[in-house]
């Protein structure tokens, strides 16, 4: 059954997901802050800043009015940056119908509280949405989804019927969707992999080699699992699409904003300069700050995160950070694995 769907956020990922939903026969309206972008989508059927050289379907409509986007819709998909999630949720609450499904596709934590995005949505939307929220995550570069490259993701909800309904709304011949009941694990995995991707880009820029990158990704997965399980996630989630799957694609592709940001920092650019030049949200930056705090809160050891935090926020030399990681005390891999899982 076709749905009326609002997609909040006209960046690359929100636009790509809107294309999937239109492909599936749904009536989709995408909300963006900027009037010029809304006009471009409606009249030129492009989004050159975020998805250059991609033709958008003419059925996709855009608006800068939150009320027009959300009122009466069957599904509301939040694809806004993590730092905007609470503000947008507060604004749209009065227009979301009690029957609506709420989906978010944002990979990050709220700065300050360390809350996952579903927690923010539940807190702001309250009843009846506490049981109608799902998270969409997994290895999925927007650029490839927009080109209809085969992509596989996961939708998580604490209520299986919600996950299955969202699965049916998004899934098609090039966009395969699995369900997962571990909402915590899917959100944590999707968020923390951005930290490792930043570190991977930094390492590639320093020329540390493939051996080191393989170790970084492997030990990075251990850190993700260690903190995730401490927060209540199921360990097996991290060997799935929202864990190792998303980690691999984000650490190895130049489509990744986080990889690019890390690479630019390795070339001597300061963080503020990198973020200004990229002109897009790099979720891994604030996620590093939040994960650093969460690790202390949960008494979890995260050496890669600690070193990246020092590089980003304490002006530590990246080469020194790599050396300090390599000089850590001797230990058994099995002991490390057991502590992680």
UniProtKB/TrEMBL annotation:
Belongs to the NAD-dependent glycerol-3-phosphate dehydrogenase family. It comes from Thermoflavimicrobium dichotomicum. GO terms for molecular function: glycerol-3-phosphate dehydrogenase (NAD+) activity; glycerol-3-phosphate dehydrogenase (NADP+) activity; NAD binding. It holds the Pfam family NAD_Gly3P_dh_C. Keywords: Cytoplasm, Lipid biosynthesis, Lipid metabolism, NAD, NADP, Nucleotide-binding, Oxidoreductase, Phospholipid biosynthesis, Phospholipid metabolism. This is Glycerol-3-phosphate dehydrogenase [NAD(P)+]. It is found in: Cytoplasm. Pathway: Membrane lipid metabolism; glycerophospholipid metabolism. The active site is at 193 (proton acceptor). NAD(+) binds at residues 9-14, 142, 257. It catalyses: sn-glycerol 3-phosphate + NAD(+) = dihydroxyacetone phosphate + NADH + H(+); sn-glycerol 3-phosphate + NADP(+) = dihydroxyacetone phosphate + NADPH + H(+). Sn-glycerol 3-phosphate binds at residues 107, 138, 140, 193, 246, 256-258.
């Amino acid at each position: 059954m076709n749905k009326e769907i609002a997609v909040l956020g006209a960046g690359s990922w929100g636009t790509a997901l809107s294309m999937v939903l239109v492909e599936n026969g749904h009536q989709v309206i995408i909300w963006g802050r900027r009037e010029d972008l809304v006009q471009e989508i409606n009249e030129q059927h492009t989004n050159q800043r975020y998805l250059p050289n991609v033709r958008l379907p003419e059925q996709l409509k855009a608006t800068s009015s939150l009320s027009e986007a959300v009122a009466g819709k069957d599904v509301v998909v939040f694809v806004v940056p993590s730092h905007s999630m609470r503000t947008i949720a507060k604004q749209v609450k009065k227009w979301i119908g009690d029957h609506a499904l709420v989906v978010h596709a944002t990979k990050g934590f709220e700065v300050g509280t360390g809350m996952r995005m579903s927690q923010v949505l539940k807190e702001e939307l309250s009843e009846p949405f506490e049981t109608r929220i799902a998270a969409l995550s997994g290895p999925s570069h927007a650029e490839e989804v927009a080109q209809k490259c085969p992509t596989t993701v996961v939708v998580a909800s604490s209520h299986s019927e919600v996950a299955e309904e969202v699965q049916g709304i998004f899934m098609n011949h090039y966009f395969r969707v699995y369900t997962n009941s571990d909402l915590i694990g899917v959100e944590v995995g999707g968020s923390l992999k951005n930290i490792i991707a930043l570190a991977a880009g930094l390492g590639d820029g320093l020329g540390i080699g493939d051996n080191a990158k393989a170790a970084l990704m492997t030990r990075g997965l251990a850190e993700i699992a260690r903190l995730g399980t401490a927060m209540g996630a199921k360990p097996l989630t991290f060997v799935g699409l929202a864990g190792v799957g998303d980690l691999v694609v984000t650490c190895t592709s130049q489509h990744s904003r986080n990889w690019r940001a890390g690479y630019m920092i390795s070339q001597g650019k300061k963080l503020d300069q990198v973020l200004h030049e990229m002109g897009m949200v790099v979720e891994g930056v604030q996620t590093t700050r939040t994960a650093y705090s969460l690790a202390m809160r949960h008494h979890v050891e995260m050496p890669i995160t600690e070193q990246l935090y020092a590089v980003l926020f304490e002006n530590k030399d990246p080469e020194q950070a790599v050396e300090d990681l390599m000089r850590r005390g001797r230990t058994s891999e099995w002991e490390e694995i057991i502590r992680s899982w």
